[in-house]
Amino acid sequence: MKIACLQFAPQVGDVSNNIARAETVLSKADPEDLENLDLLVLPEMAFSGYNFKSVGHISPFLEPTGSGVSSEWPRTAARKYGCTVAVGYPERAEASGAESRYYNALIVVDGDGEELANYRKSFLYYTTKTWALEGQGFYGGKLGSFGQVAMGICMDINPYKFEAPWNAYEFAFHVLQARANLVILSTAWLTNDERTGFLSSPGAPDLGTLTYWVRRLEPLIRTESPEETIVVFANRCGTENEATYAGTSTVLGIKDGEVSLYGLLGRGVEELLVVDTDKPPFAKIIDPAEESVDGEPGAPPAPAENPEDSDNGPRRARASQAHHHYTWTTTSHPPSAIPIFVDVYTPDADADADVYVYDDNGDNDDDYEAAWHDSSSSLSLLPVDWRNMTAAAAAAAAAAAGTTGVCVVAEGGLVWEDTDRG
């Protein structure tokens, strides 16, 4: 299956320019990437912008069910690219003899521009609660040629109202109940990081966000199904007033208890992520602490083998990283204080590169901070725990393991950079 996520930075109420921004991203994409697409997914409330404060604020931008600009655009795009297209929009549903009802919705149309689904967000974030009603439950059912599909919008993967138990996993269990082989998630997901530091590395994914998303899919992982479930996160990037969005759009594959990465974008890039799930993934996320569905840690498993070379490689995440492959692990579901381990290798054993390990929380202490240089073909740090290492110890451990590429390990997660880092 060839899947595309259109990540861009819409602004509140600037519909025409938001559409133009999306079109610009598509125009800059490799023409070959746009051939034979099966699915194109845009973010939540893609053309209206997201951060509305009230019904009055959003009222001029509400669109009739399935017939506004956010519904016409995917029909045009679907016919142009011959694929199914999903776009998030603010819906105004007319009711006979009653006031209109407003929803945060996702419209899906097939390659002929015919509507396949109009899903309404079920779990509302604080911002959306100011103007929208809850939908009647997550989407699950047959969708065109994709077979069984589950759909959600952003907050849908969180515990209900942030009040339900973490291990209720409402959306993940819905996916299992629906027997979905494809999960579509259109999001406007915020980062937990401070804006200034976060925006300084637009090409780096927000690994805290990615880790959290994977944690919310825990039941899918623990079933260890031999059938792969593809999960699409189409997020937005940029800022709106005080809101800073996490970007990091990704396509995951969950099979046999493992999570594969088919593609991943940076936190701040406006770009089209295109992957082919019929080709090998470029990385796997491996959890060294076996956890039960309630999140209690268990014993660490053995280190995983290096991921295979793949046409879905990190060039999809960042063009300058085309020769790097990554595997990392996490050991706890909260997005803070996550110990990270990493495998990095390149197919070129003679490649020279600087490697950095440093503290990314801004306090300039000596923990994690190290830099070294060599030309080995692989970095294998499993099962080294960087949390309690001084710079000297970290450098010694990495030198003993053999290193290549650029690796940044921080208290809250892993960020990778390219070899041009100064």
UniProtKB/TrEMBL annotation:
One of its GO terms (biological process) is protein catabolic process. Residues 288-323 are annotated as: Disordered. Residues 1-279 form the CN hydrolase domain. InterPro entries: C-N_Hydrolase, C-N_Hydrolase_sf, Nta1. Pfam families: CN_hydrolase. GO terms for molecular function: protein-N-terminal asparagine amidohydrolase activity; protein-N-terminal glutamine amidohydrolase activity. This is CN hydrolase domain-containing protein.
